[in-house]
Amino acid sequence: MSVNQQAHTGPPYGQPQPGYQGYQQPAYGGQPLPGVPQSQYGAYNGPMPGYQQPVPPQGYFPSLGFPSKGSPVSLNSDTSSLAPNFIGSLRAPPTSGAPPPATGASLPSGHLAYSQFGHGDVQNGIPASAAPMQRPPASQPFLPGSAPTPVSQTSTFQQYGPPPASVQQLSNHMAGMTIGSTTASAPPPAGLGYGPPTSVPPVSGSFSATGSGLYTPYTASQGPPPTSVSQGLPLAQPPFLGQPISTQRLPTQVPGFAPPPSSTGIGPSSYSPATGAPRPPTMPGPPLSGQTVAGPPTSQPNHISSPPPPSTMSGPHPGPPMSGLHGPPPPTHPPQPGYQMQQNGSFGQVRGPQPNYGGAYPGTPNYGSQPGPPPPPKRLDPDSIPSPIQVIEDDRSNRGSEPFVTGVRGQVPPLVTTNFLVKDQGNASPRYIRCTSYNIPCTSDMAKQSQVPLAAVIKPLATLPPEETLPYLVDHGESGPVRCNRCKAYMCPFMQFIEGGRRFQCCFCSCVTEVPPHYFQHLDHTGKRVDFYDRPELSLGSYEFLATVDYCKNNKFPSPPAFIFMIDVSYNAVKSGLVRLICEELKSLLDYLPREGNMEESAIRVGFVTYNKVLHFYNVKSSLAQPQMMVVSDVADMFVPLLDGFLVNVNESRTVIASLLDQIPEMFADTRETETVFAPVIQAGLEALKAAECAGKLFIFHTSLPIAEAPGKLKNRDDKKLINTDKEKTLFQPQTSFYNNLAKDCVAQGCCVDLFLFPNQYLDVATLGVVTYQTGGSIYKYAYFQLETDQDRFLNDLRRDVQKEVGFDAVMRVRTSTGIRATDFFGAFYMSNTTDVEMAGLDCDKTITVEFKHDDKLSEDSGALLQCALLYTSCAGQRRLRIHNLSLNCCTQLADLYRNCETDTLINYLAKYAYRGVLGSPVKTVRDALINQCAQILACYRKNCASPSSAGQLILPECMKLLPVYLNCVLKSDVLQPGPEVTTDDRAYIRQLVTSMDVAETNVFFYPRLLPLTKADVDSDSLPAAIRNSEERLSKGDIYLLENGLNIFVWVGVNVQQGLIQNLFGVSSFSQISNALSTLPVLENPFSKKVRSIVDMLQVQRSRYMKLIIVKQEDKLEMLFKHFLVEDKSLSGGASYVDFLCHMHKEIRQLLS
Length: 1153
Ligand SMILES: [Zn+2]
Hints:
Blueprint: E1 168-170, E2 179-180, E3 229-233, H1 300-305, H2 322-325, H3 340-343, E4 379-380, H4 388-399, E5 404-405, E6 422-423, E7 433-435, E8 439-441, H5 444-450, E9 454-458, E10 473-474, E11 496-498, E12 503-505, E13 512-514, H6 536-539, E14 542-546, E15 562-568, H7 571-575, H8 578-589, E16 605-611, E17 615-619, E18 628-632, H9 654-667, H10 679-692, E19 696-702, H11 738-749, E20 751-757, H12 765-774, E21 779-781, H13 787-803, E22 806-816, E23 820-826, E24 837-843, E25 848-854, E26 864-873, E27 879-891, H14 894-899, H15 903-917, H16 923-944, E28 954-957, H17 963-971, H18 984-995, H19 999-1006, E29 1009-1012, E30 1039-1043, E31 1047-1052, H20 1058-1065, H21 1086-1101, E32 1107-1112, H22 1118-1122, H23 1137-1152
Parallel strand pairs: 1-3, 5-6, 8-27, 10-14, 15-16, 15-19, 19-20, 20-21, 31-32
Antiparallel strand pairs: 2-4, 3-28, 7-9, 9-25, 11-12, 12-13, 14-27, 16-17, 17-18, 22-24, 22-26, 23-25, 26-27, 29-30, 30-31
Helix pairs in contact: 8-9, 8-13, 10-11, 11-12, 12-18, 15-16, 15-17, 15-18, 15-19, 16-17, 16-23, 20-21
The structure holds zinc ion.
C-alpha cells in the first residue's frame, strides 16, 4: 500500500498549467474568526481522536518573552506592500449565490457549521492562491475602498508579492566601517590543557527535537519578509577603528568591511579550509586536532588561492596571524602546550585560545588590545558584521506579536526563534512545513544560476501549541478520500470546481475528475462550493482523512501497535545499575503509553525481552501467577518461542508484569556475561510483531559492541587515523550490509527501532544505528553512563520517547504542481522507489527534508503547490492520511527569490546535504562544495540584484545575511571538522541526529544560545537577552548559560561575586564549585530559582533532555565549552566568523571576476 494507490496514469508533468482561473477565492466570508471554537468541526468525526490529549506542547511558552530590543519599526521597505497588492479577487457577496443547503453526504449530522472564517476582519479564508491577504469581510459586498480593483468573478490573479524587483541595496559606502585595527592576539594559552573531558562526554548527550517544535525559544528575526536589502560592506580602508556602527540598522547597511579592494579583507590567510587551494592530501581540512599534525599548518595552502593581499586586509587576524598569510610558515605561535595542533591551520587566529583572559576580555571591542607580537593587522570589527542575535531579536519584535495567518501564497513565516501563533487559512503551518524560499524561480536556468536549493523541511506530525487547532479528521465514507483521477492528489483548497460543481480540475496536474455523488455540492455565484467553510479539506492547509481498507496492508485494517522493551542484561548493564533503573521506571511508565483521544487506556500492547549472548522471552499472560522465561540460545536463526502471552495489555497483566520487572534485576545480578548480540535482538522483535500481525516499536537498551557469535556480529574498526583521508567516509558507513537488509524487513513490517546506548567505549553507532535510522526511530546515547549523574537525563528521554505521538507503518509522498517535482529526500526513513518515503514509525519530532527540481517552467500566475500526504496507523490502530498543502509564489526576477528566502531552513538543508555527503566523499570535498555553493548563491545576488558598487564591498541579501556565519558553524561542526575530543561514535551519532532535525533544532544546534544569567531579571519570567557566541562577549564577572539542544553549559567567570556563587551553588567561593554537578542545587533564593526555571524551561523546549555541565573559567572543561563559541576560531581549526566572512568575500569576488 502506498499513499499513491494507483499508478499515475497520465503524464505527470509538463502539462499545461491550468492556471486555476476559476478558482478565485471568493473574497467573501473569509475572515478568520478570532475565536471560533474548534469544536465546530465536530461534524467531521469530531476532533481528531488521537490528538485529543492536549499534549502539553512541550516547549511552548507563550508568555515568555525575550526581551526585545530594537524598534519594531519596520525597516524593510517592502513591508508595506501587503495590502496594496491585492486587487484582485474580490467577489460578490456570497449571499447572492443562493447556496443550497450544504451538506456533504458524508457528514455526520449535527455538525455545526464550520465557520471559522465567518466573520472577522482579517483575511479571507482560504487564500486563493494568489489572493492577497486583506480582503473585505465577507459580509460586506464590495468594498470599493479596500480593493482597488473590483474584481468580480474573473479576477485576475495578481501575484502577491513584493514589488518587483528593485532591490535596493544599500551599499553603504559608509566608509568608515569597521575595520578596527585592534588585534594582537594574545599568545596562546599555555596552560589549559585540554584533555578529553573525562567525565563529560562530548557532545554525545542527547539531542533534541523540540517538542513542539516550533516553539522555539528565542525569537528571531529576519525582518519582515521581503526586504531586499543588501548590505554592503564596503571595504574600507583600514582604519576605522572600531566604529561601532554596526548593527544599527538602517535597513541594510552593514558596516563594513573594508579591506581595500584588492586585498579584500579576506585574506587568504584567514580561512583555512579554503576551497580551492591545494592542500596536502591528507589533510583536507583544517587539521583535526585529533591527529596531530606536526608540520606546518595545513591550512596554508589555502592561501594560495587567494591573492595575497597585503597585510592590510583582513583584519581578521588579531594575532600573530600573519603567518597564515604567507606561505607555509611555520607556526608563528610558540607551540603551546596543549594545543599544538590547533594552531595549525588557522590563519588568522582571531580569538584563539587565549591564555588568560586578559583585560580586554569582557566584551571590549578591542579585543586583544594587548600588544600582540606581530604588527597588529587590521581586523574587521565583529560588531560591524551581521549579528545572529540582532536578526533574531528584530524578527521577534517585528513578527512575534501577531498571528501568522496562512492565507497568503508565498508568505515567509517568522523565524523559528520567534514565538508566534499560526492561523491556518489554507496553507500548512510553518510548524509542519518550512521552505528555503517562498518564491521560486520560474525556470530551471534561474534556479541553477542562483544555486539556491529549493527545499522544504517537513514535520508531518509536529506538535502544536495548545492555542492552535489540531488537524481535523475528515471522513469521505466508504469510497475513501476524494482524489484526482490522474495524479491521485487529495482534495485540497486549491482544487477548482467546475461545471456547477460536478467536476473538479486538479491543481497539480490539471486533470478533470468527476465529483462523486456523495461529495457533490453546489457552487455559489463565485464558483466556490457552498460548503467551503464547512470542510477542512476545502478551507484549510492541514487536515486528516480517515483511510479506508484500501489503504491498509493486505487489505486488512491494522491491529493496534505493540511496544517491546528489550534490555541488555550483560555484566556492564547490570553492574552500572542500569537494568534495575529501567525495570523500576517501566513499572510506572507503562501507565503512560500513548492513547488515542478520549480512550481510557492505551490500545498498545507490550512485551519484554532481556538478552546478552542469548535471548530471554517472557510470558506475562494475565492468567499466570508468575512470569515465565523462555530462553533462545540459537541466535543464528531467531524465532519467537511463544505467541500467546508475549504481547499483552498492561492493565490485564499488571501484576505479572510488575513481578517480572521486580525479578529481572535479581535474576541477572550475578551475571558474568560480558558479550552481547545485537541483530538477533532486532530480529526477535521483528518476528514477534510479524506473528502478532501488527506494527510497533522496539525499545532496545544496549551497552556494547556486539562481538558475540551471531548474525550482525561486529568488530572494533574505529580508527581516528582515517580522519582527513579518503577513507574517512568508512567511519560513517556501516561495517556490514547485514543491518541494511534487516532494516528493510523491519520497514516492511512497520517495526520501528529506538535505541538507547550506554557505551563505555566504541560500539559502532554507524552500524548499530542503521536499523534505527532507516525505520524512523531515535537513537539516544549516554556515554560512560553513571547512575548518579545520568539517570535523570536518561529517564526523561525514555519517558518522552515512550509517550510521544507516533504514527506507524507510514508512507509519505510529496506531490507538486506541474513544473517542479521532489527529487531528493533527507531524513530517517527507507525508500524502495524514488517517490515514497517509508517509515516504520514517524514521531512528532522527526522531519523529512525534501528537495525540488524543475522539470518544466513555472508561471508567476499559478505559483507552485506542494501537497504532502502521510499515510499512517495511529496509536490505536486507525489508518489515516494527514495532508499538508502549501502554495508558493514563482518569480522571473532573481531579486524576488532572494527576498523570500529563509536562511535557517537553507542551513537545515545544507547541513543534511553535507552530512549525507560524508558517506560517499571525503570530508574536505564536502566542505569545499558547501563553501562553493554558498559563494555562488551570494555572487549571483551580487551580480544580478545588487546595485553596482565597488568590488571591494561585500553585499549580502537581507534574508541571507546570516548565511556566512551559519554556514561556518556547519563547516566547523563535529561531523565535518572534528576536534580531538570527538569520538567516531559521536560523529556518527550527530550525523544521524541532524538528519532528522527540524529547522529550530538545527538553528540552535549550529549556533547555540548563550544567555548571561547574571543579567536575568529575577522578577520576570523572561529570559535575559542572548549574546553572540564569542569569548570576547563573556565577562569574567558573570555567569552564562549556553545550550545547543544537546547540552547546557553553565559557565562561571573567575571574578563572579561571591554572593552570586553562594546563591547559585551553595558554596562560598569559586574554587569550591564542583564541576561534577549534573544539576543545580535547589536553593531558596531568587537567583537560584530564576536560573533553575530557565534551565527547566529550556529542557522542556527540547525533545531531548540536555546534559548540564558546569564549567569554571580556566578549568580544563572550558575547552569543551569554547568549542561552542562558534564565532571564534575553533581548536580544531575552524575559522572564526570574521575570518570566514572574509574568506567568503574572496570567493565571491573570484566568481565575479
Ligand atoms: Zn491531479
